[in-house]
Write a structure and sequence with these properties.
By secondary structure, the protein is mostly helical. The protein has seven helices and no strands.
């Protein structure tokens, strides 16, 4: 389906909202971690990358791949959503990241301190751990520790930067021009929010909640 690329139209708004939701989730993960809630911080960090991959990267790709006329938008939209669900089959992310590689080129490896690939660790360990935490499954390791959550929050920030740069550099995103403009706006808003948060902390805020 042909996408309306005009600023201020549906897909421009859709991309902007998705970027904001993703970055708001990342900011919430950091706030929760600072407040002493590692489990929720872990969940929100994973959420931030999931939103970015699904809504910013994959949704426009699938929409433009599916044939349809303007009056068939609901059908095309529903099929695109189903393709996203299928690409995240069983919560493993394998199909989704393969699609990202095909469309935007392979992501450069990011390594953990012990030499493991961050994306492999994310798929095999972090995502299932998020599911265990959300659903309260009893597992041997218990809930995420502050150190574990801090690591995942850091990885999510690094992944967000990597994915954003990949979209900007390749120029193959179906809404590349809208994406770049939306990212610039989101980055400006994020910097303003962070500056306000730092200023508020300098003035004096409540101490972090422990436990």
């Amino acid at each position: 389906m042909e996408l309306d690329r005009r600023p201020g139209c549906f897909f421009d708004v859709t991309v902007r909202v998705a970027i904001k939701r993703s970055r708001d989730s990342a900011a919430e993960a950091r706030r929760l971690l600072e407040a002493g809630f590692p489990g929720p911080a872990y969940v929100w960090a994973v959420r931030s990358i999931e939103i970015f991959v699904k809504e910013v990267m994959l949704l426009p790709l699938f929409l433009i791949e599916i044939e349809g006329k303007p009056d068939e938008f609901d059908r095309v939209w529903g099929e695109a959503r189903q393709r996203i669900r299928d690409s995240f089959g069983s919560g493993r992310w394998d199909g989704a990241l393969r699609k990202v590689d095909e469309a935007f080129g392979p992501l450069a490896p990011m390594r953990t301190d012990d030499g493991k690939d961050v994306w492999s660790e994310w798929k095999s360990r972090v995502v299932p751990r998020r599911g265990d935490t959300v659903h309260g499954r009893p597992i041997e390791n218990g809930d995420p520790s502050p150190a574990e959550a801090a690591q995942v929050v850091q990885w999510a920030d690094q992944m967000m930067d990597q994915l954003t740069l990949r979209l900007i550099v390749t120029g193959t995103h179906p809404l590349h021009d809208l994406f770049v403009a939306a990212f610039d706006s989101a980055a400006e808003a994020y910097r303003a929010a962070e500056a306000a948060r730092v200023e508020q902390g300098a003035i004096g805020s409540a101490p972090p909640i422990s436990g």
